[in-house]
Amino acid sequence: MLGKRASIDVSYQGVDITEAVDKDLISFEYVDNASGESDSISLTLKDEKHVWLIDWFPEKGDMILPIIKTTNWRRENDKQSLSCGRFYIDEPSYNGRPSKLQLDAISSPLNGNFKDVNRSKSWRNIALKEIANDIANRAGLTLQYIGNNNPRYQVKEQSETPDASFLSELCKEEGLAMKVTDSKIVIFDELEFEKKSSVTTYKEWGSVVLDYSFNTSLSNTNYDGVNVKYYDPMKGKTIEYLYTINEINEESKIYQVNKKVESGDQARRLAQKTARNLNKRETTASLSVIGNIELLGSVCVNLEGFGVFDGKYYVEKATHSIGGGFTTSVELRKVLEGY
């Protein structure tokens, strides 16, 4: 079989610098998060002749677009590629000896208005997707809204909160995931993605698995139910909904939520989604494997031969590393049943 090869193509400010990067590459890392955190890359280059230091030193905010490419990786004459998306140089650094340049870049725009500026705004009779589109336009981003989970609100208030934090919390309440990647805000239903077929199966005895660890936590998880209760002074009545996962008795662990809701249906949604958020990380795992570009945030994998930890897992974070080989590390949580 022909030799395996993993490499990266790099476009910088619209210019192809693949040849220069390939010649000086020490390491490359691409982190793809399912939600919450921005995606990121880190590129370390040797600089024996100080070309990167003097002539090609990057500027903060410059755009870089890397593509991971593999040849003969899975089988002979097999070629794959993974476009990592657009990133913006955040923290270029340089050190020696030997002389090295490190480029760190993130997928979120460096414009601080999206993350750092407090805003207040009121929406009436509006759906979540419309709110997200308003915020995306304000940040100079596009919106990718996946799925049909698009709740509508009579009134929704943003009060002295940055756009990123406000939208993230709103999505979380509705059981939706949100991330910023490739110059767009992506919103999707985690539950729907968990129902999709797994992209691959990893077995404990397989040579593809390099190392692994599992953890089960019961301290902040394993609630039997969630009770949402809110007194609406305008309507003069209490809106309440109890969502139960297991049979309720005197020893049951019930999580209490006292937050403004407009209707019983909204209280129900909030209770169900809160229960899921509380319990979804009861079993987590970390896995390091021979590089696999199919492993990305929000896909699922099956694990076999790990005893009580066998099952279907959702990828929360995937890190692809090139340099002296190609490996992928993933952070996983076991897919919940019955939600």
UniProtKB/TrEMBL annotation:
InterPro entries: YqbQ/XkdQ. It comes from the Bacteria. Pfam families: YQBQ. Residues 120-331 form the YqbQ/XkdQ domain. This is Phage late control D family protein.
